[in-house]
Specification:
The complex is a heterodimer. By secondary structure, chain A is mainly α. Chain A has 2 domains: about 70 residues, Orthogonal Bundle (Arc Repressor Mutant, subunit A); about 45 residues, no CATH class. Chain A contains 5 helices and 3 strands, in the order αβααββαα. By secondary structure, chain B is an alpha/beta fold. Chain B is built from 8 helices and 9 strands. Classes of the chains: A mainly alpha, B alpha/beta. Chains A and B meet through helix 2 and helix 3 of A and helix 5, helix 7 and helix 8 of B.
């Protein structure tokens, strides 16, 4: 995992787990690495990983069972919420950057459609 | 916890630290950053009790550093190993000085770092010497680990090995690591707290993640900005 050093690392760790949940790579009941394993794997301060794991618990994404490890524990509603949050963040960013370039909604839609069909064409 | 209260230290006419007040919280990995001559090594030597401040005071868990030497493991910047020793002999030498030597950890780390006990200090590479210094320092179970420029002049792969060792070996909550370095990019994801020193004064300090949130900048960028404003 590559980190962007100008953003808090614990948030990037949480986002990575969110994406894995949204894509279905992680599911309810799956065991995730221990904090120590994860710290070694991504080469991050164990205190930072601890902060991320603690936050994910309070966000109702994971549950830590004493002596057994940390498991994905998320309701379907909560997952849908997280998915929506991430989408909104991306769109908000897109809109504010486009507005700063002087684009109006109509032109944004146009460019979105154009780009989407171009990218689809490339994938084919 | 290590505390500096209004600490000043000069060497002749050179001011190394100028009325510095600082707290190194317990259980954190703390980056001590700044250019050459900022006062990083002086700070570390004062904590070690190798020097005394001209003014002000330093407390290690509330006590005089001279009394806490057994609680502090130190990795000096200079090459302090005897060239005629091999790694096993250098380990023996350290072992006799410190009651907190952890033989099991030493055995495990020597493998992890790809070192061998019969390697002679005078014959090994600079990177291997750096790893040997690390091995001897972290094989102690000292609550405080002070490292003075552990990454300088070392190739990128060895730097990674050193950082991996620190992460792997770090005892959360109970161990405090202070790393002085100007290789900030290398330790971005390693440090909890940062202290930027410049010409004997604290330019900026705080929690690394909080600083990223507040300023939207990496530690490298923060350092550059702090020093641009200084001029």
């Amino acid at each position: 995992m590559e980190f962007n050093s100008s953003q808090p690392i614990y948030k990037q760790i949480i986002d990575d787990f969110k994406k894995k949940l949204i894509r279905g790579e992680l599911k309810e009941g799956d065991k995730i690495p221990s904090q120590r394993e994860y710290a070694e794997e991504v080469r991050v301060n164990p205190n930072t990983v601890q902060r991320a794991y603690r936050e994910m618990e309070s966000m109702n994404m994971v549950e830590t069972l004493r002596g057994q490890g940390t498991y994905i524990s998320i309701s379907a509603d909560r997952l849908e919420e997280i998915k929506m949050e991430m989408a909104i963040n991306l769109v908000d960013y897109f809109i504010s950057e486009m507005e700063s370039l002087g684009y109006r909604q109509k032109d944004m839609f146009k460019i979105l459609e154009q780009e989407q069909s171009r990218m689809e064409g490339e994938r084919r | 916890m290590i505390e500096f209260k209004n600490v000043s230290k000069s060497f002749g006419s050179t001011v190394a630290l100028d009325d510095v007040s600082l707290v190194f919280p317990r259980g954190k990995i703390i980056g001590l950053f700044g250019p050459n001559g900022a006062g990083k090594s002086t700070s570390i030597k004062l904590i070690m009790g190798l020097n005394r401040p001209d003014r002000g005071e330093i407390r290690v868990d509330g006590e005089n550093p001279q009394k806490k030497k057994q609680d502090v493991a130190y990795l000096p910047e200079i090459d302090h190993l005897y060239p005629w020793m091999n790694i096993a002999q250098a380990a023996d030498f350290t072992r006799t000085f410190y009651a907190d030597w952890d033989e099991a950890k030493y055995q495990e780390l020597i493998k992890f770092l790809n070192l061998q006990e019969d390697m002679k200090i005078s014959k090994i590479s600079k990177g291997q010497r750096a790893k040997t210094k690390l091995l001897l320092t972290v094989s102690r179970r000292a609550p405080y680990l002070l490292m003075d420029e552990p990454l300088s002049g070392i190739d990128i792969l060895t730097r990674e090995e050193i950082i991996n060792t620190l992460i792997r070996d770090y005892r959360e909550g109970e161990q405090t690591i202070i790393i002085s370095t100007h290789e900030i990019a290398e330790v971005e994801s390693l440090v909890d707290e940062v202290i930027f020193l410049d010409r004997g004064q604290v330019k900026l300090s705080g929690n690394a993640e909080d600083l990223r949130v507040e300023r939207n900048m990496s530690l490298v960028e923060l350092m550059k900005e702090a020093f641009r404003n200084a001029d």
